[in-house]
Amino acid sequence: MRRLSFLVAAAVGATTFAAHGQSIEPRTYSNAPVGMNFLIAGYAYTTRGLAFDPALPITDVDIHSSSAVLGYARVLDLWGRSGKIDVIVPYTELEGSADFAGQPITRTIHGMGDPAVRLSVNLYGAPALGLREFASYRQDTIVGVSLQVTPPLGQYDSSRVVNLSGHRWVFKPEAGVSKASGPWTLEGKAAATFFTDNTEFFGGVTRKQDPIYQVSGHAIYNMRSGIWWSVDATYFAGGRTTTGGILNNDLQQNWRLGATLAVPVDRQNSIKLYASTGVTARTGNEFDLLGIAWQYRWGGTP
């Protein structure tokens, strides 16, 4: 049982890192009517290349994870500029096998992961508008900023070491620019992810992690039917960890590519499909991701 716990602890760290440090999300800083609400339910599957803490002697890894995600977002009027607050809560099942110190082990766990709360505001090019005013709005250039906060509220028990939480706070400030030209929209974003220490890591030691710095770009094509698709890319670096005072050889220098397709079903419902894969990875983050999400929208200020 102790050896099985090693596998879980390492893989959970990978899942948490992937969720907060490598996201490729288009249209973060688009405009919408004030008072509009969005309910999102989704499913994502990852496989191949999950990262492990190098302090753990784990080899021959075959790990898969499935995550159900429930989210809510509301468009706000922030001092005359459009903004948005969103909350995401994941439920994850992780299973796989590996060799720990030369011995084969397997493990399956499931439970709540760490939720995330994000506040964003469009500083330029996206004023706060009601439904009637928004009908005549046409995007040109939007400049926005956001802050995502992830509290350590997911499954974590230091005595059992079977966890789906990073057991630390995560802060991700970001700035982005979105430029529309005809049916095309080009976006660029820069972000940094900061981590507090996990003082109850496996074995009673403290695990620290340096910030991760990320840039991403999106080319989005909007069709008259309301369908849109995008090609997405991101590069992130940093994130080296220290476990029990020992600096690990796990510096991140990784590229990922992805694609997104959104299809409206009716005025209130839409479906989004997305996928991404690791292109180059210095430290075992070339995992594949496939996902689907349903979105329902309602409300809006007249």
Computed CA radius of gyration, to the nearest angstrom: 20 Å
**CATH level-4 homologous superfamily:** Autotransporter beta-domain
Number of domains: 1
- The H-and-E topology, N to C, reads as HEEEEEHEEEEEEEEEEEE
Report mean pLDDT, rounded to a whole number: 84
Note the total helix count.
2
The major beta sheet can be summarized as: 12 strands, antiparallel, barrel
Number of strands: 17
User: Major sheet: order of its strands?
Assistant: 1-2-3-5-6-7-8-11-12-15-16-17
Beta-strand percentage range: over 45%
CATH class: Mainly Beta
CATH architecture: Beta Barrel
Distance between the termini: 59 Å
Overall SS class = mainly beta
Low-confidence stretches: 1-21, 51-57
Helical amount among residues, as a percent range?
under 10%
Dominant shape: globular
CATH topology tier name: Lipocalin
Give a verbal description of the structure.
By secondary structure, this protein is mainly β. It has helices spanning 2-21, 131-134, and strands at 36-47, 58-78, 81-100, 103-112, 116-124, 141-150, 170-181, 184-195, 198-201, 205-209, 212-222, 228-238, 241-243, 246-247, 252-264, 269-280, 288-299. It has a twelve-stranded antiparallel beta barrel with strand order 1-2-3-5-6-7-8-11-12-15-16-17. Strand 16 and strand 17 (288-299) form a beta hairpin. The longest helix has 20 residues, at 2-21. 36% of the residues are buried.
List keywords for this structure.
4-stranded antiparallel sheet; 12-stranded antiparallel beta barrel; disordered N terminus; mainly beta
